[in-house]
Amino acid sequence: DTGVSQDPRHKITKRGQNVTFRCDPISEHNRLYWYRQTLGQGPEFLTYFQNEAQLEKSRLLSDRFSAERPKGSFSTLEIQRTEQGDSAMYLCASSLLLQGNNEQFFGPGTRLTVL
Amino acid sequence: AQSVTQLDSHVSVSEGTPVLLRCNYSSSYSPSLFWYVQHPNKGLQLLLKYTSAATLVKGINGFEAEFKKSETSFHLTKPSAHMSDAAEYFCVVSYFGNEKLTFGTGTRLTIIP
């Protein structure tokens, strides 16, 4: 399968624990994005990378959140000291930088439940 | 700030009848506009996109949308609904030089047999 993959698909954790999610983009894509989707809402932008550089972070990304893309391929999103409000679907997307084209391809998401 | 407004949170149509899902965007510079569909337990799939070429955009599964600058609208239509069209639909905007996508709140489409 050559689409965007995310792991795990589901994560249940207790409040205060740390969690880490992984995203593998489409192989030739140089941009990678993280979004968060809460129940009944559209996805909200969190951050994005071009190759290994993190170029933009949303105000939604508190200091408990950190994202990395160390080799410009896969990315990880870590949430420290999880809170119940962090419960959401975390979506990853990737795209290929081309002039005038910002088509993003989404993975299936990781559903986080914080108890 | 860029934004989109989806005017209906829920639309129900009978199978075989036309579908209209409404979207308005905030008018700043030249937008790129998209419609994405999300089926239960599946990832977001791009239906169609407008990027300043033809104003009438055709997408997958018989959907199309028309960019109307004077009305700042980008409504999604389909002539004849199919049961498999039941899903959540998101209108999305981005602007040149700003890489993030801004999603609307979604419209849930229900198809009545």
Describe this structure in words.
Chain A is mostly beta strands. Chain A is 0% helix and 49% strand. In chain A, the strands form two sheets. In chain A, strands 2, 4, 5, 6, 9, 10 and 11 form a seven-stranded mixed beta sheet that branches. In chain B, 34% of the residues are buried. In chain B, the strands form three sheets. In chain B, strands 2, 5, 6, 10, 11 and 12 form a six-stranded mixed beta sheet that branches. Chain B is built from no helices and twelve strands.
Structural class of chain A: mainly beta
Q: Taking Cα atoms only, what radius of gyration of chain B do you get, to the nearest Å?
A: 13 Å
Question: Which whole number gives the mean pLDDT of chain B?
Answer: 91
Secondary structure category of chain B: mainly beta
The ordered H/E elements of chain A are EEEEEEEEEEE
**How many helical stretches of chain A?**
0
The number of helices of chain B is 0
Overall geometry of chain B: globular
Query: Biggest sheet of chain A, in brief?
Result: 7 strands, mixed
Radius of gyration of chain A: 14 Å
Helix % of chain B is under 10%
Classify the oligomer. Answer: heterodimer
Provide the low-confidence segments of chain A as ranges.
none
* Approximate shape of chain A: globular
> Helical percent range of chain A?
under 10%
Mean pLDDT metric of chain A: 92
Give the number of DSSP strands of chain A.
11
* Major beta-sheet overview of chain B: 6 strands, mixed
